[in-house]
Write a structure and sequence with these properties.
It comes from Deinococcus oregonensis. The chain is an alpha/beta fold. 41% of the residues lie in helices and 17% in strands.
Length: 132
């Protein structure tokens, strides 16, 4: 499988195994946002608040999330946002996911236009046989 960091970010991509080791080798900073317990927009914003280590001044809305992701002062030039349990979230929260994807992909384009890189990576939990 090709390494995701060998190419420019392109939409929401699958996170590589040994993510942090691979990212370190490419000098990509990584932050994880756990979507497991997201039930609504507010809990989604709280997941980003925790995952991105934001302050309580974070606006808890789509514009604030876009601003945080595209701010060159708060994000390194090579940055990977890892969405944990993304596939389950996407199936559970169809409308919320559509809104989230729009913001993430707009942010990705904006960051690339500024000569920086934002990977949006979907990470799935290891297969749990109890789920089946």
């Amino acid at each position: 499988m090709m390494n995701v960091f060998n190419a420019a970010p392109d939409g929401i991509q699958t996170a590589p195994h040994d993510m942090r080791i691979v990212a370190a080798g490419y000098q990509v900073a990584v932050r994880e946002v756990d979507l497991t317990r997201v039930r609504d927009k507010e809990s989604l914003m709280l997941a980003f608040l925790r995952g991105l280590a934001l302050t309580q001044t974070f606006g808890h809305n789509w514009d604030a999330l876009f601003d945080v992701l595209t701010d060159p002062e708060s994000r390194p030039p090579r940055f990977a946002l890892v969405l944990c349990d993304y596939d389950h979230f996407r199936k559970r929260q169809v409308k919320l996911n559509a809104e989230l994807e729009a913001v993430l992909l707009d942010a990705q384009r904006e960051v690339m236009a500024a000569g920086r890189q934002l990977w949006v990576l979907a990470e799935e939990p290891e297969s749990d046989p109890r789920r089946w």
